[in-house]
Amino acid sequence: MHELGIAESALQIALDRAKTEGASRVLRMVIRVGALSGVDPEALRFAFTVILPGTAADGADLQIDPVVALAHCPDCRKDFVPDTNHFFECPVCGRLCATVKQGRELDLVHLELI
Ligand SMILES: [Zn+2]
Known about the structure:
alpha+beta, 3-stranded mixed sheet, 2 helices, binds zinc ion, 6 strands, 114 residues, 31% strand
């Protein structure tokens, strides 16, 4: 379960920021998780429930925003939601090498400290 390591990294970032800003607690964290990031949002949420107790982020409101995958076909110039995580086949022309526009995000995008 690599979500545990990811949760630990995010927590470390939050705690470092709190320390830098002289905050005593982390109130809220918002994390964007792309459908192609390889991270399961539910497993990530669970990982936080394991590691937060006893830290300055204990009881923090955790918001996990899933980001749908979106690919772009250079031939049709259209965006589409890919069927699978491995092949980005354009539903219009069948081109396989469409580019990924979004879905690989794994970011701590918002932090509230007090
Ligand atoms: Zn196409």
